[in-house]
Amino acid sequence: xxxxxxxxxxxxxxxxxxxxxxxxxxxxxxxxxxxxxxxxxxxxxxxxxxxxxxxxxxxxxxxxxxxxxxxxxxxxxxxxxxxxxxxxxxxxxxxxxxxxxxxxxxxxxxxxxxxxxxxxxxxxxxxxxxxxxxxxxxxxxxxxxxxxxxxxxxxxxxxxxxxxxxxxxxxxxxx
Amino acid sequence: xxxxxxxxxxxxxxxxxxxxxxxxxxxxxxxxxxxxxxxxxxxxxxxxxxxxxxxxxxxxxxxxxxxxxxxxxxxxxxxxxxxxxxxxxxxxxxxxxxxxxxxxxxxxxxxxxxxxxxxxxxxxxxxxxxxxxxxxxxxxxxxxxxxxxxxxxxxxxxxxxxxxxxxxxxxxxxxxxxxxxxxxxxxxxxxxxxxxxxxxxxxxxxxxxxxxxxxxxxxxxxxxxxxxxxxxxxxxxxxxxxxxxxxxxxxxxxxxxxxxxxxxxxxxxxxxxxxxxxxxxxxxxxxxxxxxxxxxxxxxxxxxxxxxxxxxxxxxxxxxxxxxxxxxxxxxxxxxxxxxxxxxxxxxxxxxxxxxxxxxxxxxxxxxxxxxxxxxxxxxxxxxxxxxxxxxxxxxxxxxxxxxxxxxxxxxxxxxxxxxxxxxxxxxxxxxxxxxxxxxxxxxxxxxxxxxxxxxxxxxxxxxxxxxxxxxxxxxxxxxxxxxxxxxxxxxxxxxxxxxxxxxxxxxxx
Lengths: 175, 510
Hints:
Shape of chain B: globular
Mean pLDDT of chain B: 79
Number of domains of chain A: 2
Low-confidence stretches of chain A: 1-10
Order of helices and strands of chain B: HHHHHHHHHHEEHHHHHHHHHHHHHH
Strand content of chain A: under 5%
Oligomer: heterodimer
């Protein structure tokens, strides 16, 4: 990982304000979708949605108008700053997010223990841990703790895969 | 209603018997408190599968031990490295670190521990004595008042915790909107479910919590290579035990200050949105203002450590009051505990004091036992546990991400929920970057279904007439407080020299 200071700290430049729009746009999207898809329902089913959605739309509109005004005044820019820039941290975030998504998607086939092991090894390796013994030890210990605590002791229904089947076959536990 | 002394004695004995979960919770809480960027909330989230599966009494004891000790642990790096482990310890650095630089690290640590433990003990006892009065709330708060209380809670969070009122309100209402997803409670018609059957029961709270807090924080955490710089670690290694007794003597001299600053923490803890950071800065400010030697503050003066530490532990007792009394969490930790309680079928709100007084009292007895253990154990533990700050983020981030994703499975045992947690993680990350208050968003998500229930009930009583929401003096008073809370940030801006303005600002900057 790089040693440089935190990204996004440029006190002399106008504040990048595009990131201010993300949450209001998501909120407006949900409110509009909610209100549009419930128009045919009886008033009881719509009441809370309207009571929350309408003020939410007003708040978001006002806030976005205010932010646009600040940009027009030159106190901010319509830039997203470093949030979508091609930086090391953003690439790491993206890869970690994809890794977790892949871990979740592959869980029915890999099972929890193997999936977690692979996800941890890949994540730590990507962040700069390159000693194989360390990778295997940390990931292996974590997987063992998760298996013993959640799957064996607590009997959680986390998906089973090759490792869990192997343990069941070898020791007759965790079936 | 009187304080049930025999019940309390019985519960105290049962709480003592839970030492096997309280002690691990305390050890973990100390570690979590020491680690900057790690919070009690995130640890509770990671350990949710465990707390959901063990029985409710043991689960709550574990969470309470962890939460109370975290506030204490946060003072350790604040004193040794000038780096608060928790927001609540941000004010501790003002005098704690100068004490370390003067060679009084041990005294500062002992002041911090003793003030935390005694402050927490005092406020827990006061809260237990107050509980019967809180039980009377059930007679006054009906659907109409509860709608007003919920709006008031969200508004306060937006006004106090968020830096920008509009962003705070948007986050809170966005949360309420998310909470309104799912089938309607009267006819069972799906609303805004995006075609997912898994959302028919509404947005599951645990994946939302995990995503908004833990995953988004892990995404931010990877920007630092290690949690503590190596040169600060060298300073920690030189800490010794020789001055422990002197630290205890200093603390005993300021016993009255410990009591009244912890009461500030208790009151602030009851208010939604304020929390440990604001209470610690307020306590520090008033301690300095009322001191005969205010010029010594900031130079390594022991009361400058005692005041914020007793206040931030006073918050722990107050945080649970709105959860029990109104069924509304005052902060994230309260929200997590509320989730665990509701998972176990506990109906929170004013009637809890009538129907399950044993549960409410048992939680506070567990807190009392935890503080007693803390007095006995925390001194020998702290020195060695402070070494956990060495763990680099290249290990922590993948561990947190993968473990919390697994924790998302625990509530309903759907793989869908793990993906949902990741989605909320991305939303939480953008919210953090845009400085939207994610605790307001989470509390909105939690209160969404409750809001709908109380709102619909009010509307039915009023036959669709909105003026029913203003039909009682209590409701009108709460609505007036909502309006007052909306004006609070403007007053704060106009009067930048005010105590609240300074403390809140200091809290945001920490």
